Amino acid sequence: MKTMDEGRRGRLRTIVWIGLLGLALLVWFNYTKRIRLIRVDRAATASELTLRRVDGTRLDLESLRGSVVLLNAWASWCGPCRAEIPALSAVDAELRDDGLAVPGLNLEDLQPRALGELAGQLGVTYDVVQAASPLRGTFESPGTIPHTWLIDRRGRVRASHVGLVEQGSLMRACRTLLEE
């Protein structure tokens, strides 16, 4: 039969292990929200991509060469996508004049006008676009969303991040690319 002290030690040990597991999960979750830039010599050139703004005008990714591009694939039904909107808007507002372009690539089958209204209701302040051509190469079938790509001024994909992104990490990565 266990004594009272042995029982307390066992419970304390269990509490410590649960606490350590919780801490490890917290560290892992925060780590996965960080953008990690790919070295220039390992970065692939961005595939051709033609986009359509909600006002109907076309936007070719090639036309953004010379700017740093933060391309974010999202959908309105995606909770993490919606949670990311304020961070993307803040990064866009702060770095737009420094040469950052932020097209938000909506993957839903919505009419442009309806998408524009929805984006406004969600507080999107950056460019909302849809693919005018199939997603290929570096952008082919993002699968899990949100999916964020950072493209440097020379058109190289320097980051491809799946899932929710931390605003501070995104800001630092964009500034690094803008300063190159």
Describe the structure.
The chain is of the alpha/beta class and 180 residues long. It folds into two domains: 1-32; 35-179, Glutaredoxin, CATH 3.40.30.10. Helices cover 39% and strands 22% of the residues. It has four helices and nine strands. The protein has helices spanning 4-32, 79-95, 112-122, 167-179, and strands at residues 44-45, 50-53, 58-60, 68-74, 100-101, 103-106, 127-131, 147-151, 156-162. Strands 1, 2, 3, 4, 5, 6, 7, 8 and 9 form a nine-stranded mixed beta sheet that branches. Helix 2 runs parallel beside helix 4 (167-179). The longest helix has 29 residues, at 4-32. Residues 22-31 have low confidence and may be disordered.
Number of helices: 4
Q: What share of the residues lie within helices?
A: 25-40%
Radius of gyration: 21 Å
Question: In percent terms, what proportion of residues is strand?
Answer: 15-25%
List unreliable stretches of 5+ residues. Answer: 22-31
Oligomer: single chain
CATH superfamily of the largest domain: Glutaredoxin
| General form | globular
How would you characterize the largest beta sheet? Answer: 9 strands, mixed
The CATH C-level name of the largest domain is Alpha Beta
